[in-house]
Specification:
The protein contains 14 helices and twelve strands. With about 375 residues, the chain is an alpha/beta fold. Strand 2, helix 4 and strand 3 form a beta-alpha-beta unit. Helix 1 runs antiparallel to helix 2 and helix 2 runs parallel beside helix 9. The protein binds pyridoxal-5'-phosphate. The site of pyridoxal-5'-phosphate (PLP) has 16 residues, from helix 3 and helix 4. Its cofactor is pyridoxal 5'-phosphate.
């Protein structure tokens, strides 16, 4: 089945009791048992719920995976993966990460004796210098947040296999429409479903998709034991959001391309990060592993102080100044004070996350209005 058909149908059969075409919201915590242990496959909704199950099967299909697990947030999904580790283990990851991922690694899991190496993965060969017998996992994002650096998934996958590591890709920025890491050697794909997959800025949710049955059982055990699982109403909203994922992504890419072209030579823009430019770093890798380049763009403003940056960020009329991304509406974000505030300045500077950097999540509004808004705000 092709992507759009899966987005609309995967995991969703007409409801067996009524024939309802749309998956019902099974708003129940518990399920009747005929005799102890004799039930219809559902016992308690922390572990299993039919609405969530339909969503998980759909999520798995989108990433060409066998198994899907939905979590109550992207960070809940990340937390479950980290619980596979034990004190003394080491993780290799990128130096340009979602701020919350950096925070959970350094402020929570470092305290449990797990060591993280934050590396510039634009050339994956650097991983070989850090792998030792304690290394258990590689965790990457691509494109990275917020500087849109591209990491070669297949190349990291090869290094991971050769060293018998668990390779996890946070695929939030690309969405499963643009990129499927499992097909390129990833063991687990993580998503903040809050973003493109949900797509309407009305739900916080996370997901893991994977193929290996043993690993699925381990992660399901953590999911049920620790309990960061989403409710049926949110599961329903995301199933509904997914039905237009392919249509939304096409529009995000088209608007993203037009906004990138407009900003590229704008006199107020010193630098622009968007993987679709032929002269952007690792553009050839992006072309190889992504179907298109998406609607996430970051710009560094020319000669702008922090105050200038604040003033420009506050003068948009269509773009809303807010955290998050991937919804139908356009958003503008100031990473240093918003999403990446928990990363120390020295680390931020190393990754190019400077005071005068703004990140755009280009939505699916009419492009004329978006360009007009950019024009007036930058003026
Ligand atoms: C938002 C985000 C997360 C965290 O997901 P939540 O749903 O907010 O918990 C993780 N990674 C990336 C790349 C994100 O953008």
């Amino acid at each position: 089945m092709k992507f759009g058909t899966k987005a609309i149908h995967a995991g969703q059969e007409p409801d067996p009791t009524t024939g309802a075409i749309m998956t019902p919201i099974y708003q129940t915590s518990t399920y009747w048992q005929k005799s102890p242990g004799d039930n219809k496959g559902y016992e308690y909704s922390r572990g299993t719920n039919p609405t969530r199950k339909a969503l998980e099967d759909c999520l798995a299909a989108l990433e060409n995976a066998k198994y899907g697990l939905a979590f109550s947030s992207g960070m809940g999904a990340t937390d479950a993966v980290m619980k596979l580790l034990a004190p003394g283990d080491e993780v290799i990851t990128g130096n340009d990460l979602y701020g919350g991922s950096y925070r959970i690694f350094t402020k929570i899991y470092a305290n449990y004796g797990i060591k993280f190496h934050f590396l510039d993965l634009s050339n994956p060969d650097i991983i070989n210098e850090y792998v030792n017998d304690k290394t258990k996992m590689i965790w990457i994002e691509t494109p990275t947040n917020p500087t849109m650096q591209i990491v070669d998934i297949a190349a990291v996958g090869k290094i991971s296999k050769a060293n018998n590591l668990l390779f996890v890709v946070d695929n939030t920025f690309a969405s499963p429409y643009l990129q499927n890491p499992i097909d390129m050697g990833a063991d687990v794909v993580m998503h903040s479903v809050t973003k493109y997959i949900g797509g309407h800025s009305d739900v916080v949710m996370g997901a893991l998709m994977l193929n290996d049955e043993e690993l699925y059982k381990k992660l399901w055990f953590i999911y049920n034991a620790c309990g960061a699982t989403p409710g049926p109403m949110d599961s329903f909203l995301v199933l509904r959001g997914i039905k237009t994922l392919h249509l939304r992504m096409k529009a995000h890419c088209e608007n993203g391309r037009a906004v990138a072209a407009f900003l590229k030579d704008h006199p107020r823009v010193e630098k622009i990060y968007w993987p679709g430019f032929p002269d952007s770093k690792n553009h050839e890798v992006a072309k190889k592993q992504m179907r298109d380049f998406g609607g996430m763009i970051s710009i560094v403003l020319k000669d702008a102080s922090l105050e200038d940056t604040y003033r420009i960020a506050g003068s948009f009329k269509v773009f809303a100044l807010a955290e998050s991304l991937g919804g139908v509406e356009s958003l503008i974000n100031h990473p240093v004070s918003m999403t990446h505030g928990s990363i120390p300045k020295a680390e931020r500077d190393k990754a190019g996350v400077v005071d005068n950097l703004l990140r755009l999540s280009v939505g699916v509004e009419d492009i004329e209005d978006l360009l007009e808004d950019l024009k007036q705000a930058l003026a």
